[in-house]
What does this fold into?
Amino acid sequence: MKRFIKFMTVILVTVLVSTIPANACAAEQANFSNAKASLIADAKSGQVIYEQNAKQKLPVASISKLLTVMVIADEVRDGQLKWTQPIKISAAVGKISNNSEYSSIGLQTGKSYPLNQLMAVALVKSADGATLALAGATGDSTASFNQKMQKKARQIGVKDATIVNAVGLRNGDLLKSQRVAGVANKAENAMSARDVAKIATYFVNHYPHLVEIAGLTSTTIQATNGKAKTVKTINKLLTGGYAVNGVQYLGLKTGTSDKAGACLVSAAKYQGRTLITVVLHANGGNDDRFTQTQKMYQALVDEYGAPQQLHLTKRYQTIPIKHGLPLKVRVAAPALKIWIRGDAKAPYHAKVDLKNSLAKNGNLLAPIKKGTTIGTITVKPKGMASLNSYGLKAPLVTQQTVNHASWLKIAWYRMVH
It folds into this structure.
């Protein structure tokens, strides 16, 4: 963000348009979810469409594995690991992977499995042993990999996460050699529903390959010179029974522990937008996380229908331009959309950031062609909650061509207009 601001010319203004009720940007709690915490957000804009107790820090269990696989994906990107690199299973990891009290898939001690297959079973089956094998792939201890997860969380904007291990288990649930010294045995990973949504939003926006894996209904894992084994997803959104008309589930991650209860973070496509839902500790049985998630999507469809274009006020339909005619260029922000009840107009603050390469001292410079992205407009409608601090942001695009003009032509134009 600092780099972005450095290269942008900033114009800050306040705009007021017709008023709507403050709750028009947020759904009523009773219509959506029955859980300790829940949330639905737009992954493109960051708009929080609905939230309930979303700022309370709660255990998240295996939802933590989203952070784990992002850290590993970054290490692959940076050349520290390779996607098909064989990862040898230690005795400790093998013991957990063959214990039915964990999410186990039977990885064999001393055998090696391709990193990409371990990633797949960690996401699809929530395999604890596979996740621990990934966390130790570069020789990290539990504590040192926790630091990597915290660093990634902070990069995403999550400042207050409790990270005890890569899996989401209690510290005391790991073998003694895997526990973090000085941390209580009952300690486990925890964060708010908002923080889970931030992580999931970052995940879907920056790791499309991992999203594809998280959406698989089954995957295969095979040790070097070993027999292939197929495992099935535990995300029942992907296997039928929880459909919502028009909503395409993309997957993501379940989480379960005694303290966390049944949790689920999901991603789905609807009306051309990617949506994120979070359910922490669904009230009821283990499958209620899927029921509550389905209810949130259904309520969104019923009460909102589709995101609406947030219209620019007259003041922002044109931007002054120097060294050209006309003196102002018509602009639009077609991607500026909001989930809202009723007419998409509300009091809002607006900020225009012009690209430094196209502007000088806060003014656009001619010539400029139609369809040029000249910068961004950021607005924060009254009553709208957001995962970020700035609100909605969208490209600002010219709707006409403005050619260069001499000072004489410009002077004459000013005289006759």
Notes: Residues 1-23, 27-31 have pLDDT under 50 and may be disordered.
